[in-house]
Automatic annotation (TrEMBL):
Keyword Iron-sulfur among record annotations: no
A single Gene Ontology CC term: cytosol
Domain Alcohol dehydrogenase iron-type/glycerol dehydrogenase GldA, first and last residues per copy: 9-178
Species annotation: Lachnotalea glycerini
Fe-containing alcohol dehydrogenase-like C-terminal domain span: 189-389
GO molecular function: alcohol dehydrogenase (NADP+) activity; butanol dehydrogenase (NAD+) activity; metal ion binding; methylglyoxal reductase (NADPH) (acetol producing) activity
UniProt keyword annotations, A-Z: Oxidoreductase
InterPro entries: ADH_Fe/GldA (IPR001670), ADH_Fe_C (IPR056798), BDH-like (IPR044731)
Lineage top rank: taxon: Bacteria
Pfam families from the UniProt entry: ADH_Fe_C (PF25137), Fe-ADH (PF00465)
Protein name, as recorded: Iron-containing alcohol dehydrogenase
Length: 392
């Protein structure tokens, strides 16, 4: 285990009907006017937005709404949000939804208190430790952005999906009511569960030794998500399974399962280019490429893949042929994807990139890491091209 720092100040308010507590949470912190940032029309239809409005009004807090967030949230809407906040003297940003509204809210928060070009922040040309105060109400179990330090935004010029990570971006509070996820389409629910699995797996596949404690925590989380996703696909109103997924989403990406080790995140970097070019659902994109990434890199540390196979998917360990066990674990993950309706190839995802598009995605991908991505096995442009071609 290597040295690490772990910091997670977000207050979590978890359970049924907790969204009505949002006014008090904001009032107790002394804020006066809120930008409510969200996506879609479902918050109107299910009454959540009305309940939030009422909670704020009852606490004497003014608010202004900004909807319109789409998957792979855009920088153009972020800039509109900053303009509204400045005009309306907003002092607090409340995101309602999944990772897209929360990430977009974080970007608005960065832009509101810094005077640099926000594109420069997400392109890695500047850094900051300052952000406007943010809280969130989760309505999907997926990215874990409600307690993470990460924000991912798509820059329309070049359709570049880029991230900025800093602990200042962890929301002050996260309200999490599993009942709010009941009406999600099954595909979106499954994509979210896949993202939770991948956030954990990106940290689990490491070459750092003596990390048994976090391994066991990660394996328990992975098994729970694997089983809960299967239950929810069959019964969307299974509260306990929904609760497991929602809490697991935060635990998978708040940094805990990455303590004491070097994480990988190559699959995420590759998928970001898929998302930027083809605007695919993030979790589905990860499923479409992970098996190809795994088969390309597994020989780097066969015992680690064999451990994953045995402890997460119950594959019988062949002590005489750990490679067979490792490969069976990769197949078991893909079988799980099939059962919840997730793609395991680019064609199943519905995209058929040309050789030129593959080359462009690979070049953009490694450019984010100064020529290579990943730490389990460093991947250069030719490696990313090979993985994308395998994934077709």
């Amino acid at each position: 285990m290597i040295n690490f720092e772990f910091y997670n100040p977000t207050k979590v308010i978890f359970g049924k009907e907790t969204e009505v507590l949002v006014g008090k949470e904001i009032k107790d912190r002394g804020f006066k006017k809120v930008l409510i940032h969200f996506s879609g029309t479902y918050l109107y239809e299910n009454g959540v937005l009305d309940r939030v409005h009422n909670s704020l009004s009852e606490c004497g807090i003014e608010y202004v709404d900004l909807g319109g967030v789409i998957p792979n949230p855009r920088m153009s809407l972020v800039m509109k949000g900053i303009e509204i906040c400045q005009k309306e003297n907003v002092d607090f940003i409340l995101a309602i939804g999944g990772g897209s509204p929360i990430d977009s809210a974080k970007a608005i928060g960065y832009g509101l208190v810094n005077d640099f070009d926000l594109v420069d922040l997400y392109m890695g040309r500047v850094t900051t430790d300052k952000i406007a105060p943010i809280g969130c109400i989760s309505t999907i179990a997926a990215t874990g952005s409600e307690t993470s330090n990460s924000s991912v935004i798509t820059i329309e010029e070049g359709m570049l999906k880029r991230s900025y990570n800093h602990d200042c971006a962890r929301p002050l509070f996260a309200i999490m009511n599993p009942e709010l996820t009941y009406t999600l389409p099954i595909y979106q629910t499954a994509s979210g569960a896949s993202d939770i699995m991948m956030h954990t797996m990106e940290r689990y596949f490491t070459n750092t030794s003596d990390v048994e404690l976090i391994d066991r925590m990660a394996e328990g989380l992975l098994v729970t998500v694997k089983e809960a996703a299967l239950k929810v696909v069959k019964n969307p109103t299974d509260y306990n399974a929904r609760a497991d997924l929602m809490w697991a989403g935060s635990l998978s990406h708040n940094g805990l399962t990455g303590t004491g080790r070097i994480a990988d995140f190559a699959s995420h970097k590759i998928e970001h280019e898929l998302g930027g070019m083809f605007d695919v659902a993030h979790g589905a994109g990860l499923c479409a490429i992970w098996g190809s990434w795994a088969r390309y890199v597994y020989k780097t540390n066969i015992p680690r893949f064999a451990q994953f196979a045995a402890n997460v998917f119950g594959v019988s360990t062949n002590l005489y042929d750990l490679e067979q066990t490792a490969l069976e674990g990769i197949e078991a993950f893909e079988d799980w994807c099939d059962k919840i309706g997730m793609p395991t190839s680019l064609s199943a995802l519905g995209i058929h990139p040309t050789l030129e598009q593959v080359d462009e995605m690979a070049a953009k991908c490694v450019a984010t890491g100064n020529g290579h991505v990943g730490f389990f096995k460093p991947l250069y442009k030719e490696d990313v091209i090979a993985i994308l071609n395998l994934a077709k």
